Amino acid sequence: MPTPVQDVRRLHRRLVLRTLRDHGPQPRAGLARRLALSPTTMTKVVAQLLDEGLVGEGATDGAGTRVGRPSTEVRLRADARYVIGVQVGAGLVRLGLCDLRARPGDVRSFGFDLAGEPPERVVTRIAGAAAALAEQAGDRLLGIGVAAPGPVDPGQRRNVLSVNLGWRDVEFGDPLERALGVPAVVDHNVRAMALAEARYGDTGGADPLLYVYVRTGVGAGLVIGGQPFRSGAHGVTELGHLRVVERGRPCACGATGCLETVAAEPYLGELARSLLGRDSADPLADLASAAGEGDERAGAALDEVVDRLATGLASAVNLLNPALILLGGAFRTAPEPVFDRVRQALRARAFPVLRDAVQVRRATLGPDAGVVGSAAVALDRLFYDV
Question: Which residue range or ranges hold the HTH marR-type domain (predicted)?
């Protein structure tokens, strides 16, 4: 059991690493002031991190233009350790080797048959693909993070229920640890993406932050005070299963009229086929393009989708009061006029005091958001909280 002195040293170590992660390179004196630590303590902490190869020191950019002795900055060595991030989606797995800033390098993917391939087989395939990435990292690999749709158990070892995948009680932690020999951690996919945006995205430090991901379903993740919000036993924010249509379509969850039955990609694809007469790889963008070209039916359908999404978002705004809502997934490639429609519709539904306080923007992390999210979860558990 760690002694009080060891606990204090670990705390100082965590504080320095998190500060370098969140604020970039810092002079030792600046770090000490920011963290209210003595210069002597900071010297000891930095010396330890230098010995471990986790940080480096170098001249400040532009220091040579100043008179006197150039200052040096402590910087995080992002390539000192790695994690593997795994995003499990509907019929698709993406995984990548990510550095200490959760930046993915080698990203790979494979498809699987939702109807015919059991989840245990998918986990085995994940282990095989991850093993190839683990070889690249060698002894610098800290562990593996998995972002899967649906709630996870309190220990973050297994996916409890994924409605859209038809999975229940799928073990990830133990099989992956046996295969790779490193720790594994599992989290809800959209909560992981929300954490990644808060940690590594271009959000301006907005707090609270609500991330909404529209794909096969509509998922949400909330970060408050820099920490992912985990409510109850499983900690999920099931925005997609708010009822927004009375006597609406049946949902995979067993209810009717859920938001994801009238706003997710399967429904958007149906609209595109019906109104545009063709299949679409990006139905939201194609509907918006048709509406922009004067197609009244496409415009009306887009307004209906946006209205229903805004109804769900307004509930989240009124209950949770986020400063920023990020829309990802299908909205990553949506044209800006779609966001304008969402902002207007949300403004009409949110509580008056709150409607002026919340921003709605496009998610910032791009197509690898799920890989970055799962890496962020692993890094928090296995590196920045150690």
Answer: 16-55
Question: pTM of the entire structure?
Answer: 0.93
pLDDT tens for each residue of 28-76: 999 999 999 999 999 999 999 999 999 999 876 554 445 555 678 999 9
